[in-house]
Amino acid sequence: MQHKANTPDEYIEAIPRERKEVMQNLRKVILDNLPEGFSEVMNYGLIGYVIPHEIYPNGYHCDPKLPLPFMNIASQKNFIAVYHMGIYADKNLMDWFVGEYPKYVKTKLDMGKSCIRFKKIDQIPLQLIGELTAKMTPKEWINIYETNIKKK
Q1: Where residue 58 sits, what CATH number does that domain have?
Q2: DSSP secondary structure letter of residue 13
Q3: Per the domain annotation, does 80 fall within a domain?
Q4: Does residue 122 lie in a domain region?
Q5: DSSP helix/strand/coil, 42
Q6: pTM for the structure as a whole
């Protein structure tokens, strides 16, 4: 669910009251664990974490005017989502996350290619999301991204 927000603070202000604190906590844990070089922005109507053009001038191959996306968080209609491009592009990272998830949450992992969905917003494993956030540096993400782009 996209919101007409220009900043992460505006985004959180626009979401339903019962989700504000959860999204603030999720945002804080990401910011606290985000490796140096990533920036928080609004992209695609979501709170995003990207590699800015100052670090990666090529930008995103789909639209080089945009910075290279890495993560997004969103309050969707039926769930809160964490979108993590690295988990989709790095099988080892995916395997690690899938293996760790049951140690934090007893409900079944609800996950798409890069989307982790949390329908029970009181069961978001913030510590695990923090660990996931910290596991990939901008340099590592650029290398994985460029390797995968060359394969296409």
Answers
A1: 3.90.1150.200
A2: H
A3: yes
A4: yes
A5: strand
A6: 0.93
Residues counted in the chain: 152
**Residue carrying structure tokens 């999204």:** 23
Nearest by Cα to 47 from 68, 64, 69, 16: 69
Domains identified in the chain, total number: 1
* Residue-wise burial string across 3-30, b where 16 or more C-beta atoms lie within 10 A, e elsewhere: bebeebeebbeebeeeeeebbeebbebb
Q: Which residues is 117 bridged to in the sheet?
A: 81, 110
SS3 100: helix
Instruction: Tell me the pLDDT tens digit for each residue of 75-129.
Output: 999 999 999 999 989 999 999 999 999 999 998 999 988 899 999 989 999 999 9
On whether residue 120 sits in a domain, the answer given is yes
pLDDT of residue 94: 95
Percentage of the chain surpassing pLDDT 90? 84
Q: For residue 12, report the phi and psi dihedrals to the nearest 5 degrees.
A: -65, -35
- Cα 151 to chain centroid, rounded: 23
Report how far residue 126's alpha carbon sits from residue 34's, in angstroms, rounded to the nearest whole number.
Answer: 13
Which tens digit of pLDDT belongs to each residue from 23-34?
Answer: 999 999 999 999
